């Protein structure tokens, strides 16, 4: 704890000598180019190789789009946002551009469309230039850097007041370490500014409107764009949606109960394979094994390859693999590795890291800047502790994460209020009933806020990210019709997963 205390004092002292000019929030630009921004909207882009194997193989080219750091002061400091473009396969049928965001926040999206294009039909790929983007402050877009290089800003608070105090100290240190290097920049890495960047990209590409596909946090970004730029919003697909009114703090709290249910679901699967994994012959025995393993991790933490296995990190490792039942074997392997490690047996830490890393690794610095810059967090440290204590009995594994303190409790107040999303922009919302990252009711809430939207429910499926080539033909056909012809379903729909999408119970 002593090193954390000294780090907090050091980085806060460094930050104290730099002030951040903050002006009043400007009105939302809707139709015409706002005053002072014409040079940004009309800039000439210079396309070149992306120097990325996946993007280069997909035929993509990359460019940098210059945007104001602060849209209230367009003549002051700028950032460069990196974008990629995979051209429409049939110029004769091309109808525009489709921007995208993979989620997070903190997820680089430059290569998203190279992966996502295989989920689209040839008819859709023929019609759109697919645009990937690293949002401001992330990836190649003037990436945020923190003095304290944590792999994540999210931890579980552990079992007692001492564990919570550790996380509160670490959160304070992390916030200070992110603000100290460039406090002005850190304050302007926000969702509203990323939405403004998207509109500049639209202008620089010479398009009257954007089409958009967003996953997870990307649904919030997309919803914010429709609120700020409704006349420039065309066909909008929001997969695994967040409730804008519960972003971000409420969304984490919603993750507690749905991941406890997902762990029970996985425990049923693992119990049927006790001969392979030896966690228990019944689901309650498997859950008891996992909960005991976390306590053993608290007593005997393991450090290696820059990773720490303890009561603060193990729940996050489990959560990372509960988002899809096809990851059940990987989760079993991770549980076995952790259990062996905290029992004193040698383990392969690099292999563990590989299994728990997502396809789009989130940048902790970018996540902190966006979330903390979007919406203020409670400053009362006791508020978090009370919430954690109130759910320990019903959420023994994930409650201490879902209600834990983060760097946002120590971040400066946002430069402008969060966006209230209430509009009639047409959109297609995709939501699985047992999503472990964005609770089903959050998609329902966004559907209510976007009054002209249609919602497609994927029934009885524990999955985050509904659009997959082999998950539900029903879902894919609806998305295809909308992106191809602009046709939304006449009413909300419920789809089933395809028979071939199996995870044997």
UniProtKB/TrEMBL annotation:
Record carries keyword Ligase: no
Signal peptide residues on this chain, from the entry's feature table: 1-27
SUPFAM superfamilies xrefs: alpha/beta-Hydrolases (SSF53474)
Residue span(s) of domain Peptidase S33 tripeptidyl aminopeptidase-like C-terminal: 396-495
InterPro entries the UniProt entry points to: AB_hydrolase_1, AB_hydrolase_fold, Pept_S33_TAP-like_C, Serine_prot/Carboxylest_S33
Keywords: Hydrolase, Signal
Gene Ontology molecular functions: hydrolase activity
AB hydrolase-1 domain: residues covered: 109-257
Protein family: Belongs to the peptidase S33 family.
This protein's name: Alpha/beta fold hydrolase
């Amino acid at each position: 704890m002593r090193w954390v205390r000294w780090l907090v004092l050091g980085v806060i002292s460094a930050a104290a000598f730099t002030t951040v000019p903050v002006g009043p929030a400007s009105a939302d630009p809707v139709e015409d180019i706002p005053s002072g921004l014409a040079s940004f909207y009309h800039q000439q882009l210079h396309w070149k190789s992306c120097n990325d194997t996946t993007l280069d193989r997909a035929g993509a080219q990359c460019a940098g789009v210059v945007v104001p750091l602060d849209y209230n002061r367009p003549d002051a400091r700028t950032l460069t946002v990196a974008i990629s473009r995979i051209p429409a396969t049939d110029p004769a049928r091309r109808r525009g551009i489709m921007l995208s965001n993979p989620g997070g926040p903190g997820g680089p999206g430059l290569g998203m469309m190279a992966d996502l294009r295989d989920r689209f039909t040839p008819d859709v790929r023929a019609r759109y230039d697919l645009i990937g983007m690293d949002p401001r402050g992330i990836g190649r877009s003037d990436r945020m850097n923190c003095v304290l290089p944590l792999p994540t800003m999210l931890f579980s608070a552990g079992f007692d007041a001492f564990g919570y105090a550790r996380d509160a100290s670490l959160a304070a240190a992390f916030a200070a370490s992110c603000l100290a290097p460039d406090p002005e920049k850190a304050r302007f890495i926000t969702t509203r500014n990323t939405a403004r960047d998207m509109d500049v990209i639209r202008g620089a590409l010479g398009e009257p409107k954007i089409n958009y596909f967003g996953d997870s946090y990307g649904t919030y970004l997309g919803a914010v764009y429709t609120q700020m730029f409704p006349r420039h919003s065309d066909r909008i697909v929001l997969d695994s949606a967040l409730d804008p009114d519960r972003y971000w703090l409420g969304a984490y709290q919603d993750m507690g109960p749905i991941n406890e249910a997902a762990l029970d679901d996985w425990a049923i699967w693992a119990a049927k394979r006790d001969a392979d994994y030896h966690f228990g012959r019944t689901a309650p025995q498997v859950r008891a094994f996992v909960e005991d393993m976390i306590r053993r991790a608290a007593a005997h933490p393991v450090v290696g390859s820059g990773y720490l296995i303890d009561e603060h990190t193990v729940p996050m490792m489990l959560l990372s693999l509960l988002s899809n039942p096809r990851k059940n074997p990987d989760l079993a392997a991770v549980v076995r590795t952790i259990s062996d490690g905290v029992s004193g047996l040698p383990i392969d830490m690099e292999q563990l890291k590989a299994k728990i890393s997502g396809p789009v690794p989130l940048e902790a610095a970018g996540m902190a800047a966006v979330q903390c810059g979007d919406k203020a967090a409670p400053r009362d440290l006791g508020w978090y502790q009370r919430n954690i204590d109130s759910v320990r009995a019903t959420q023994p594994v994930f409650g201490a994460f879902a209600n834990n303190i983060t760097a946002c409790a120590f971040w400066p107040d946002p430069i402008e209020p969060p966006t209230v999303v209430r509009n009639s922009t047409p959109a297609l919302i995709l939501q699985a009933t047992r999503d472990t990252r964005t609770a089903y009711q959050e998609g329902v809430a966004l559907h209510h806020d976007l009054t002209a939207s249609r919602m497609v429910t994927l029934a009885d499926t524990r999955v985050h990210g509904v659009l997959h080539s082999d998950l539900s033909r029903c879902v894919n056909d609806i998305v295809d019709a909308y992106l191809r012809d602009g046709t939304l379903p006449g009413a909300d729909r419920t789809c089933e997963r395809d028979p071939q999408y199996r995870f044997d119970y």
